[in-house]
Amino acid sequence: MNKIVVLLITWQICIAGALRAQLNVNNTILYIPGGDYVSVQKDVISNVNIQGTGKLLLNGKFGQVINMGGNKLYSMDINDTAGVKLASNMAADGIVSFINGIFDLQSYVLDLGSAGGTLNGETNGSRITATTGTVDKTAVFNGPNLFNPGDLGLVITSSASMGTLTIKRGHQQQTSANGGLSIHRYYDISPPAGNSGLNATFNFSYFDGELAGRTKSELTLWTSEDNGLSWNNLGVDNNDPVKDQVTKNGIPHFSRFTLASPVNNPLPLMLLGFSGIRMNGVDILKWQTADEQNTRLFEVEYSTDGSGFSSVGSVLAMGSGSHIYSFTHPAAGPAYYRLKMIDMDDHFTYSKVIALSGGQNIRASQLQPNPAYAGTQLVIGDNRLLGTQALLFDGAGGLIRMITISYQQQDVDVSSLAEGIYYIKLQNGEVLTLVKK
To answer: Residue 218: phi, psi to the nearest 5?
Structure first.
Protein backbone atom coordinates (compact mmCIF):
# COMPACT_ATOMS: atom_id res chain seq x y z
CA MET A 1 0.00 0.00 0.00
CA ASN A 2 1.34 3.45 -0.93
CA LYS A 3 1.48 6.16 1.73
CA ILE A 4 1.13 9.86 1.06
CA VAL A 5 3.00 12.09 3.53
CA VAL A 6 2.10 15.75 3.64
CA LEU A 7 4.61 18.09 5.31
CA LEU A 8 3.23 21.36 6.60
CA ILE A 9 6.09 23.82 6.86
CA THR A 10 5.87 27.17 8.66
CA TRP A 11 8.68 29.51 7.75
CA GLN A 12 10.44 31.40 10.49
CA ILE A 13 12.50 34.42 9.59
CA CYS A 14 15.01 35.85 12.06
CA ILE A 15 15.73 39.41 11.04
CA ALA A 16 17.48 42.53 12.25
CA GLY A 17 18.44 45.74 10.52
CA ALA A 18 16.88 48.28 8.17
CA LEU A 19 14.09 47.63 5.68
CA ARG A 20 13.11 50.31 3.18
CA ALA A 21 10.34 48.35 1.47
CA GLN A 22 6.93 47.51 2.86
CA LEU A 23 7.09 44.81 5.54
CA ASN A 24 4.39 42.25 4.70
CA VAL A 25 4.34 39.31 7.13
CA ASN A 26 1.99 36.72 5.62
CA ASN A 27 1.79 33.22 7.14
CA THR A 28 5.36 33.67 8.33
CA ILE A 29 6.73 33.91 11.84
CA LEU A 30 8.85 37.05 12.04
CA TYR A 31 11.28 36.76 14.94
CA ILE A 32 13.17 39.82 16.20
CA PRO A 33 15.76 38.79 18.81
CA GLY A 34 16.03 40.72 22.06
CA GLY A 35 18.35 43.69 21.73
CA ASP A 36 17.85 43.83 17.96
CA TYR A 37 15.44 45.83 15.85
CA VAL A 38 13.81 45.97 12.45
CA SER A 39 13.63 49.47 10.98
CA VAL A 40 10.77 49.92 8.50
CA GLN A 41 10.33 53.04 6.37
CA LYS A 42 7.00 52.06 4.79
CA ASP A 43 3.84 50.26 5.89
CA VAL A 44 3.70 47.18 8.12
CA ILE A 45 1.10 44.49 7.40
CA SER A 46 0.99 41.28 9.42
CA ASN A 47 -1.56 38.50 9.89
CA VAL A 48 0.50 36.75 12.59
CA ASN A 49 2.21 37.75 15.84
CA ILE A 50 5.67 39.28 15.48
CA GLN A 51 7.74 37.25 17.95
CA GLY A 52 10.81 37.88 20.04
CA THR A 53 11.60 40.71 22.42
CA GLY A 54 13.28 42.91 19.84
CA LYS A 55 11.90 46.19 18.56
CA LEU A 56 9.96 47.28 15.47
CA LEU A 57 11.12 50.78 14.53
CA LEU A 58 8.71 52.73 12.33
CA ASN A 59 11.30 55.02 10.81
CA GLY A 60 9.67 56.62 7.76
CA LYS A 61 9.40 60.20 6.60
CA PHE A 62 6.12 60.43 4.71
CA GLY A 63 3.62 58.72 7.01
CA GLN A 64 3.16 55.00 7.71
CA VAL A 65 0.34 52.56 8.37
CA ILE A 66 0.59 49.56 10.69
CA ASN A 67 -1.98 46.79 10.29
CA MET A 68 -1.40 43.89 12.67
CA GLY A 69 -4.75 42.22 11.98
CA GLY A 70 -5.45 42.09 15.70
CA ASN A 71 -2.12 40.37 16.37
CA LYS A 72 0.72 41.13 18.75
CA LEU A 73 4.25 42.47 18.78
CA TYR A 74 6.64 43.21 21.62
CA SER A 75 8.10 46.71 21.40
CA MET A 76 7.73 49.51 18.87
CA ASP A 77 9.20 52.97 18.30
CA ILE A 78 7.24 55.76 16.60
CA ASN A 79 9.75 57.82 14.60
CA ASP A 80 7.98 59.19 11.52
CA THR A 81 7.57 62.97 11.50
CA ALA A 82 4.55 62.62 9.19
CA GLY A 83 2.89 60.28 11.68
CA VAL A 84 1.80 56.65 11.95
CA LYS A 85 -1.78 55.37 11.61
CA LEU A 86 -3.12 52.19 13.16
CA ALA A 87 -5.30 50.23 10.73
CA SER A 88 -6.36 47.33 12.98
CA ASN A 89 -6.51 46.39 16.64
CA MET A 90 -3.11 45.34 17.99
CA ALA A 91 -1.43 44.31 21.23
CA ALA A 92 2.00 45.16 22.62
CA ASP A 93 3.64 43.32 25.53
CA GLY A 94 6.64 45.64 25.75
CA ILE A 95 7.37 49.34 25.36
CA VAL A 96 5.73 51.61 22.78
CA SER A 97 8.14 54.56 22.60
CA PHE A 98 7.63 57.97 21.03
CA ILE A 99 10.52 59.70 19.26
CA ASN A 100 8.87 61.76 16.50
CA GLY A 101 5.38 62.02 15.07
CA ILE A 102 1.79 61.35 16.08
CA PHE A 103 0.47 57.79 16.49
CA ASP A 104 -3.18 57.98 15.37
CA LEU A 105 -5.19 55.00 16.61
CA GLN A 106 -8.16 56.10 14.51
CA SER A 107 -11.01 53.78 15.62
CA TYR A 108 -8.80 50.90 16.80
CA VAL A 109 -7.50 49.59 20.12
CA LEU A 110 -3.88 49.42 21.24
CA ASP A 111 -3.93 46.83 24.04
CA LEU A 112 -0.97 47.00 26.42
CA GLY A 113 -2.14 43.84 28.19
CA SER A 114 -1.63 42.89 31.82
CA ALA A 115 2.15 42.34 31.78
CA GLY A 116 4.88 44.79 30.79
CA GLY A 117 3.09 46.73 28.08
CA THR A 118 3.57 50.46 28.54
CA LEU A 119 3.91 53.78 26.74
CA ASN A 120 7.15 55.75 26.97
CA GLY A 121 8.24 59.27 26.11
CA GLU A 122 5.00 60.88 24.94
CA THR A 123 5.32 64.61 24.27
CA ASN A 124 3.02 67.21 22.79
CA GLY A 125 4.69 66.65 19.42
CA SER A 126 4.82 62.84 19.58
CA ARG A 127 1.86 61.18 21.24
CA ILE A 128 -1.28 59.12 20.76
CA THR A 129 -4.41 60.58 19.19
CA ALA A 130 -7.61 58.85 18.09
CA THR A 131 -11.14 59.35 16.86
CA THR A 132 -12.96 56.59 18.77
CA GLY A 133 -9.99 54.29 19.40
CA THR A 134 -8.47 53.71 22.84
CA VAL A 135 -5.22 52.56 24.43
CA ASP A 136 -6.01 49.97 27.13
CA LYS A 137 -4.06 48.67 30.13
CA THR A 138 -5.03 45.93 32.59
CA ALA A 139 -3.37 45.99 36.00
CA VAL A 140 -3.79 45.04 39.66
CA PHE A 141 -5.08 47.96 41.78
CA ASN A 142 -4.42 46.86 45.36
CA GLY A 143 -3.66 49.94 47.43
CA PRO A 144 -2.17 51.82 44.46
CA ASN A 145 0.28 54.54 45.47
CA LEU A 146 1.11 57.08 42.74
CA PHE A 147 0.34 54.30 40.26
CA ASN A 148 0.39 55.26 36.57
CA PRO A 149 -0.70 52.04 34.79
CA GLY A 150 0.86 51.72 31.34
CA ASP A 151 2.14 55.30 31.67
CA LEU A 152 -1.26 56.42 30.35
CA GLY A 153 -1.06 59.72 32.21
CA LEU A 154 -3.49 59.08 35.08
CA VAL A 155 -1.67 58.66 38.39
CA ILE A 156 -3.89 56.96 41.00
CA THR A 157 -3.56 56.68 44.78
CA SER A 158 -6.01 54.78 47.03
CA SER A 159 -5.81 52.56 50.08
CA ALA A 160 -8.54 50.29 48.68
CA SER A 161 -7.79 46.81 47.31
CA MET A 162 -9.71 46.68 44.04
CA GLY A 163 -8.20 43.69 42.28
CA THR A 164 -7.57 43.58 38.54
CA LEU A 165 -9.06 46.48 36.57
CA THR A 166 -8.82 47.79 33.01
CA ILE A 167 -8.23 51.46 32.28
CA LYS A 168 -8.97 52.85 28.81
CA ARG A 169 -7.63 56.18 27.55
CA GLY A 170 -9.59 57.77 24.72
CA HIS A 171 -9.20 61.03 22.81
CA GLN A 172 -12.71 61.70 21.55
CA GLN A 173 -13.91 65.05 22.85
CA GLN A 174 -16.79 64.60 25.28
CA THR A 175 -19.72 66.72 24.09
CA SER A 176 -23.41 67.30 24.71
CA ALA A 177 -26.45 68.74 22.99
CA ASN A 178 -26.15 71.89 25.12
CA GLY A 179 -22.74 72.71 23.66
CA GLY A 180 -20.61 71.35 26.48
CA LEU A 181 -17.05 70.45 25.48
CA SER A 182 -14.17 68.67 27.21
CA ILE A 183 -10.51 68.38 26.31
CA HIS A 184 -9.48 65.66 23.85
CA ARG A 185 -8.75 63.07 26.54
CA TYR A 186 -10.84 60.89 28.83
CA TYR A 187 -10.41 57.74 30.90
CA ASP A 188 -12.79 54.83 31.46
CA ILE A 189 -11.91 52.68 34.48
CA SER A 190 -13.72 49.38 34.90
CA PRO A 191 -15.52 49.55 38.27
CA PRO A 192 -14.28 47.24 41.03
CA ALA A 193 -16.67 45.13 43.14
CA GLY A 194 -18.71 47.48 45.32
CA ASN A 195 -17.18 50.52 43.57
CA SER A 196 -17.64 52.80 46.56
CA GLY A 197 -15.59 54.37 49.33
CA LEU A 198 -12.40 54.29 47.24
CA ASN A 199 -11.26 57.74 48.44
CA ALA A 200 -8.89 57.92 45.50
CA THR A 201 -6.62 60.74 44.37
CA PHE A 202 -6.15 61.40 40.64
CA ASN A 203 -3.30 63.29 38.98
CA PHE A 204 -4.75 63.78 35.49
CA SER A 205 -2.17 64.86 32.88
CA TYR A 206 -2.79 66.25 29.40
CA PHE A 207 -0.96 67.86 26.47
CA ASP A 208 -1.47 71.34 25.03
CA GLY A 209 -2.60 69.78 21.76
CA GLU A 210 -5.54 68.18 23.56
CA LEU A 211 -7.00 71.39 25.06
CA ALA A 212 -9.41 72.10 22.16
CA GLY A 213 -9.68 75.73 23.17
CA ARG A 214 -10.21 75.09 26.89
CA THR A 215 -8.38 77.43 29.28
CA LYS A 216 -5.88 75.56 31.45
CA SER A 217 -6.56 77.51 34.63
CA GLU A 218 -10.31 76.73 34.39
CA LEU A 219 -10.00 72.94 34.07
CA THR A 220 -11.70 70.76 36.67
CA LEU A 221 -12.33 67.00 36.89
CA TRP A 222 -15.71 65.74 35.64
CA THR A 223 -17.24 62.28 35.89
CA SER A 224 -20.06 60.49 34.06
CA GLU A 225 -22.01 57.40 35.13
CA ASP A 226 -23.73 56.93 31.74
CA ASN A 227 -20.86 56.93 29.21
CA GLY A 228 -20.91 60.67 28.69
CA LEU A 229 -24.62 61.54 28.50
CA SER A 230 -24.60 63.55 31.74
CA TRP A 231 -21.76 64.84 33.88
CA ASN A 232 -20.90 65.77 37.44
CA ASN A 233 -18.24 68.40 38.15
CA LEU A 234 -16.03 66.95 40.91
CA GLY A 235 -14.00 70.14 41.07
CA VAL A 236 -10.25 70.45 41.57
CA ASP A 237 -7.81 70.44 44.49
CA ASN A 238 -4.79 71.57 42.51
CA ASN A 239 -4.50 72.88 38.95
CA ASP A 240 -0.92 73.15 37.66
CA PRO A 241 -0.94 74.74 34.17
CA VAL A 242 2.87 74.49 34.00
CA LYS A 243 2.95 70.71 34.51
CA ASP A 244 -0.33 70.36 32.54
CA GLN A 245 -1.91 68.42 35.39
CA VAL A 246 -5.11 68.54 37.46
CA THR A 247 -5.27 66.87 40.90
CA LYS A 248 -8.47 65.82 42.70
CA ASN A 249 -8.75 64.05 46.06
CA GLY A 250 -11.58 62.06 47.61
CA ILE A 251 -12.89 60.34 44.45
CA PRO A 252 -15.40 57.77 45.80
CA HIS A 253 -15.77 55.45 42.79
CA PHE A 254 -14.54 54.73 39.26
CA SER A 255 -16.38 55.48 36.00
CA ARG A 256 -15.55 57.85 33.09
CA PHE A 257 -13.44 60.94 33.76
CA THR A 258 -12.38 63.97 31.73
CA LEU A 259 -11.31 67.57 32.16
CA ALA A 260 -13.55 70.50 31.22
CA SER A 261 -14.24 74.08 32.21
CA PRO A 262 -17.28 74.97 34.36
CA VAL A 263 -17.22 78.40 32.67
CA ASN A 264 -16.13 77.86 29.07
CA ASN A 265 -18.57 75.44 27.35
CA PRO A 266 -19.38 73.42 30.50
CA LEU A 267 -20.63 69.85 30.20
CA PRO A 268 -24.33 69.31 30.99
CA LEU A 269 -25.76 69.14 34.50
CA MET A 270 -26.08 65.75 36.13
CA LEU A 271 -29.70 64.64 36.37
CA LEU A 272 -29.67 62.25 39.32
CA GLY A 273 -33.23 61.12 38.74
CA PHE A 274 -36.45 61.77 36.85
CA SER A 275 -39.53 59.84 37.97
CA GLY A 276 -43.29 59.99 37.88
CA ILE A 277 -46.13 58.55 39.96
CA ARG A 278 -49.85 58.52 39.13
CA MET A 279 -51.94 59.23 42.21
CA ASN A 280 -55.64 60.21 42.47
CA GLY A 281 -55.94 61.24 38.83
CA VAL A 282 -52.77 63.35 38.81
CA ASP A 283 -49.33 62.60 37.34
CA ILE A 284 -46.69 63.78 39.80
CA LEU A 285 -43.23 64.29 38.28
CA LYS A 286 -40.06 64.75 40.32
CA TRP A 287 -36.43 65.25 39.36
CA GLN A 288 -33.16 65.87 41.15
CA THR A 289 -30.10 67.68 39.77
CA ALA A 290 -26.49 67.79 40.88
CA ASP A 291 -24.06 70.60 40.11
CA GLU A 292 -26.19 72.79 37.88
CA GLN A 293 -24.12 75.23 35.81
CA ASN A 294 -26.03 78.20 34.34
CA THR A 295 -29.23 76.16 33.96
CA ARG A 296 -32.19 78.46 33.20
CA LEU A 297 -35.35 76.41 32.69
CA PHE A 298 -36.89 72.95 32.69
CA GLU A 299 -39.65 72.51 30.11
CA VAL A 300 -41.94 69.54 30.78
CA GLU A 301 -42.96 67.86 27.52
CA TYR A 302 -45.88 65.43 27.22
CA SER A 303 -46.94 62.81 24.66
CA THR A 304 -49.74 60.26 24.35
CA ASP A 305 -47.75 57.92 22.09
CA GLY A 306 -44.10 58.43 23.09
CA SER A 307 -43.09 60.10 19.82
CA GLY A 308 -44.82 63.46 19.32
CA PHE A 309 -44.08 65.71 22.33
CA SER A 310 -45.40 69.15 23.24
CA SER A 311 -44.74 71.44 26.19
CA VAL A 312 -47.29 71.39 29.04
CA GLY A 313 -45.46 73.73 31.39
CA SER A 314 -42.10 74.76 32.75
CA VAL A 315 -40.18 75.13 35.99
CA LEU A 316 -37.53 77.80 36.54
CA ALA A 317 -34.13 76.36 37.43
CA MET A 318 -32.14 77.56 40.41
CA GLY A 319 -29.16 77.96 38.05
CA SER A 320 -26.43 76.41 40.21
CA GLY A 321 -25.96 73.74 42.84
CA SER A 322 -28.10 70.65 43.53
CA HIS A 323 -31.91 70.83 43.76
CA ILE A 324 -35.18 68.87 43.74
CA TYR A 325 -38.02 69.93 41.43
CA SER A 326 -41.61 68.76 40.93
CA PHE A 327 -44.45 69.25 38.45
CA THR A 328 -48.06 67.98 38.29
CA HIS A 329 -50.20 67.27 35.24
CA PRO A 330 -53.75 65.85 34.93
CA ALA A 331 -53.71 62.09 34.29
CA ALA A 332 -55.47 60.93 31.11
CA GLY A 333 -54.68 57.49 29.72
CA PRO A 334 -51.16 56.49 28.72
CA ALA A 335 -48.76 59.38 29.26
CA TYR A 336 -45.12 59.94 28.34
CA TYR A 337 -42.99 62.74 29.79
CA ARG A 338 -39.52 64.14 29.23
CA LEU A 339 -37.60 67.21 30.39
CA LYS A 340 -36.08 69.78 28.07
CA MET A 341 -33.22 71.29 30.10
CA ILE A 342 -32.28 74.75 28.84
CA ASP A 343 -29.25 76.83 29.86
CA MET A 344 -28.66 80.57 29.86
CA ASP A 345 -27.44 80.51 26.24
CA ASP A 346 -30.57 78.62 25.10
CA HIS A 347 -28.60 75.43 24.49
CA PHE A 348 -30.63 72.44 25.64
CA THR A 349 -30.61 68.69 26.15
CA TYR A 350 -33.36 66.13 26.85
CA SER A 351 -33.83 63.72 29.73
CA LYS A 352 -34.91 60.13 29.33
CA VAL A 353 -38.62 59.49 28.62
CA ILE A 354 -40.77 58.08 31.44
CA ALA A 355 -44.18 56.43 30.94
CA LEU A 356 -47.23 56.40 33.23
CA SER A 357 -50.18 54.15 32.43
CA GLY A 358 -53.87 54.62 33.16
CA GLY A 359 -54.15 51.94 35.81
CA GLN A 360 -51.03 52.88 37.70
CA ASN A 361 -51.48 53.92 41.32
CA ILE A 362 -48.19 53.29 43.11
CA ARG A 363 -47.33 54.78 46.47
CA ALA A 364 -44.24 56.93 46.77
CA SER A 365 -41.24 55.41 48.54
CA GLN A 366 -40.06 57.12 51.71
CA LEU A 367 -37.38 57.15 54.41
CA GLN A 368 -38.29 56.64 58.08
CA PRO A 369 -36.99 58.30 60.21
CA ASN A 370 -35.78 61.31 58.31
CA PRO A 371 -33.69 63.17 59.54
CA ALA A 372 -31.67 60.13 60.63
CA TYR A 373 -28.85 59.72 63.14
CA ALA A 374 -27.45 56.17 62.95
CA GLY A 375 -29.90 54.47 60.63
CA THR A 376 -33.10 54.77 58.63
CA GLN A 377 -35.50 52.49 56.77
CA LEU A 378 -36.14 52.71 53.06
CA VAL A 379 -39.85 51.92 52.70
CA ILE A 380 -40.53 51.11 49.06
CA GLY A 381 -43.86 51.89 47.41
CA ASP A 382 -43.32 49.71 44.35
CA ASN A 383 -42.74 45.98 44.92
CA ARG A 384 -40.92 45.77 41.59
CA LEU A 385 -37.96 47.42 43.35
CA LEU A 386 -37.34 44.26 45.42
CA GLY A 387 -34.01 42.73 44.40
CA THR A 388 -32.78 45.94 42.74
CA GLN A 389 -30.04 48.29 43.89
CA ALA A 390 -30.49 51.82 45.19
CA LEU A 391 -27.68 54.38 44.85
CA LEU A 392 -26.65 56.62 47.75
CA PHE A 393 -25.19 59.97 46.60
CA ASP A 394 -23.67 62.83 48.56
CA GLY A 395 -24.91 66.39 48.12
CA ALA A 396 -22.56 67.00 45.21
CA GLY A 397 -23.81 63.99 43.28
CA GLY A 398 -20.88 61.68 44.11
CA LEU A 399 -21.79 58.01 44.48
CA ILE A 400 -21.06 56.74 48.00
CA ARG A 401 -22.38 53.18 47.84
CA MET A 402 -25.02 50.85 46.44
CA ILE A 403 -27.84 49.41 48.58
CA THR A 404 -29.47 46.08 47.68
CA ILE A 405 -33.23 46.23 48.39
CA SER A 406 -34.16 42.85 49.88
CA TYR A 407 -37.18 43.91 51.96
CA GLN A 408 -40.10 46.31 51.68
CA GLN A 409 -38.64 48.04 54.72
CA GLN A 410 -34.92 47.99 54.01
CA ASP A 411 -32.55 49.03 56.82
CA VAL A 412 -29.94 51.59 55.76
CA ASP A 413 -26.91 52.23 58.00
CA VAL A 414 -25.89 55.91 57.87
CA SER A 415 -23.80 56.01 61.05
CA SER A 416 -20.56 56.62 59.14
CA LEU A 417 -21.94 59.56 57.14
CA ALA A 418 -21.12 63.13 58.07
CA GLU A 419 -23.96 65.52 58.82
CA GLY A 420 -25.55 66.89 55.68
CA ILE A 421 -27.89 66.24 52.76
CA TYR A 422 -27.78 62.95 50.82
CA TYR A 423 -29.87 61.41 48.05
CA ILE A 424 -31.03 57.84 47.44
CA LYS A 425 -31.89 57.04 43.84
CA LEU A 426 -34.14 54.06 43.07
CA GLN A 427 -34.23 52.16 39.77
CA ASN A 428 -37.74 53.41 39.00
CA GLY A 429 -36.31 56.94 38.91
CA GLU A 430 -37.44 58.07 42.38
CA VAL A 431 -34.93 60.20 44.30
CA LEU A 432 -35.34 60.49 48.07
CA THR A 433 -33.66 63.19 50.13
CA LEU A 434 -31.95 62.02 53.33
CA VAL A 435 -30.97 64.44 56.07
CA LYS A 436 -28.15 63.08 58.25
CA LYS A 437 -27.85 64.53 61.74
So the answer is: -95, -10
Task: Give the model confidence (pLDDT) of 36-76 as tens digits.
Answer: 888 888 888 877 788 889 899 998 888 999 999 888 999 99
User: pTM higher than 0.85, yes or no?
Assistant: no
Answer whether 94's CB lies under 8 Å from 114's CB: no
Cβ–Cβ < 8 Å for 423, 434? yes
Q: Give the pLDDT confidence score for residue 185 in this predicted structure.
A: 97
What HEC string does the chain produce? CCCCCCCCCCEEEECCEEECCCEEECCEEEECCCCCEEEECCCEEECCCEECCCEEEECCCCCEEEECCCCEECEEEEECCCCEEECCCEEECCEEEEEECCEECCCCEEECCCCCCEEECCECCECEECCCCEEEEEEEEECCCCECHHHCCEEEECCCEEEEEEEEEECCCCECCCCCEEEEEEEEECCCCCCCCCCEEEEEECCHHHCCCCCHHHCEEEEECCCCCCCEEEECCEEECCCCEEEEEEECCCCEEEEECCCCCCCCCEEEEEEEEEECCEEEEEEEEEEEECEEEEEEEEECCCCCCEEEEEEECCCEEEEEEEEEEECCCCEEEEEEEEECCCCEEECCCEEECCCCCCCCCEEECCCECCEEEEECCCHHHCCCEEEEECCCCCEEEEEECCCCEEEEECCCCCCEEEEEECCCCCEEEEEEC
Dump pLDDT digits (tens) for 146-186. Answer: 999 999 999 999 999 999 999 999 999 987 645 568 999 99
Q: What is the mean pLDDT of residues 231-244?
A: 89
Q: Write out pLDDT tens, residues 270-327.
A: 677 788 888 778 888 988 887 677 788 999 999 998 888 999 999 998 877 778 899 9
82-106 pLDDT per residue, tens = 999 999 999 999 999 999 999 999 9
HEC string for 11-40: EEEECCEEECCCEEECCEEEECCCCCEEEE
> What gap in Å lies between CA 136 and CA 141, rounded to an integer?
15
Q: Is the pLDDT of residue 8 over 50?
A: no
Please give the domain boundaries of the chain with CATH numbers for all domains. 11-132 (no CATH), 166-260 (no CATH), 270-356 (2.60.40.10), 366-436 (2.60.40.1930)
